[in-house]
């Protein structure tokens, strides 16, 4: 496990994402309303590039003919067969206990802390004025 | 189209390299026209003007649309839109990278879904569309990419014209099968289609039946469904009707060497259809005396089934029981790229397979059916 600096916070505004390769793994980092989440870019179903899928809301229904739409932008839909995953937990909607996408720990660190280390930040010139997104892989 | 929902920065994520050396023959690949005008060079002036003026007219009241909403634009994986524009499947270079190279595909069997010449209400126009589509496939796909093999698209509702189209292309190694739509005016086993089967047998060309076409009827016999999730399943029901018709009309008695490939309906339903037919045959054999053997024998001798969309039972091993009954030589792996319900060769089958079984399903069976080197 190492802590990888992957982006400045301004790079990924709310609703946006960044796809990157960290320690040989393809990972998507998402900003959901100011919170960051990092998911493996690989759908547990058949290996689709999950993190390239659209962010959608959750449609539920209490009875036929009525529906609720909630959690706008917090569900990630696989670009292949459309399985939905909760970005906050990595759990799939249809089979949350058994089908989950790998989540990585994300934190935001100030530039001074990043400059002090130990972090892996090969591709970054770190400036103390910025805050950085750090993923543990 | 960017599904990235905002600013996506950073280096593009590279597709993983092909990890397995498993060779794959993909028996259902969808190429597409970039624009309806792509067929212009292959149509006479008369039919070009007809196309531009009247467009395609099918036996359904929907123009430029389908009777069901589809789950994704162009029915496709959202990551399959070519970066240089055009619909999914319309860019050969992108199809090569995203499918053929990525998954080590040795051959890909092309099935064009639109336009369908066989579906045209104006039959002469339909015949012209079939010819144009075949020329277009040949020049733009199979001649440019040797791994891709085309189907001779025929106007099957007009058997004479269909046979003429088969005679025109038969013997050309770029065309390895004949294709017809499956939602037809009469069930495909009926007499009106027999000349096509005769020509197919004579040339040793399999008939590939990809679910497609409109005949004005609901896809199930039970009336029009409300949701795409229903229609998606009823595709398999309609293919069951095709299988039952081909068997019961005696097509395989008349043309014992005919090979028919049922495309895009899965296969786990085949045993139950065969068991029921056998039981009824034993009781009502004298109604169909032309069937000299139990229906299941024709099914396991003359028919093949592409795997996609592969069934995913809760206990993956249950699929082995189905394949053991059906015969491991009966199924042909297919991705259905670039459609949304595509199967990934690396993960589609969750059950155990021996190396020999794997080789059969992923390439050996297709090599034998299509006579590929
Ligand atoms: S690969 Fe993601 S839903 Fe199938």
Automatic annotation (TrEMBL), chain A:
A GO molecular function term, named singly, is:
metal ion binding
Q: What is this protein called?
A: Rieske (2Fe-2S) protein
Query: Mind listing the UniProt keywords for this protein, alphabetically?
Result: 2Fe-2S, Iron, Iron-sulfur, Metal-binding
Name the CDD domains on file.
Answer: Rieske (cd03467)
Query: Per the record, a Pfam family?
Result: Rieske
Concerning InterPro entries, the annotation shows: Rieske_2Fe-2S, Rieske_2Fe-2S_sf
Where does the source fall among the domains of life? Bacteria
Q: Which residues form the Rieske domain?
A: 4-115
Q: Which Gene3D superfamilies match?
A: Rieske [2Fe-2S] iron-sulphur domain
UniProtKB/TrEMBL annotation, chain B:
**Pfam (any one):** Amidohydro_2
Domain called Amidohydrolase-related: residue spans? 56-372
Protein known as: Amidohydrolase
GO terms for MF: carboxy-lyase activity; hydrolase activity
**Entry keyword annotation includes Lyase:** yes
The record lists the organism as: Limobrevibacterium gyesilva
A GO BP annotation: secondary metabolic process
Regions annotated as coiled coil: none
Keywords on this record?
Answer: Lyase
This entry carries the following GO cellular component terms, namely: cytoplasm
Task: State if Lyase is listed as a keyword.
Answer: yes
Report the domain of life of the source organism. Answer: Bacteria
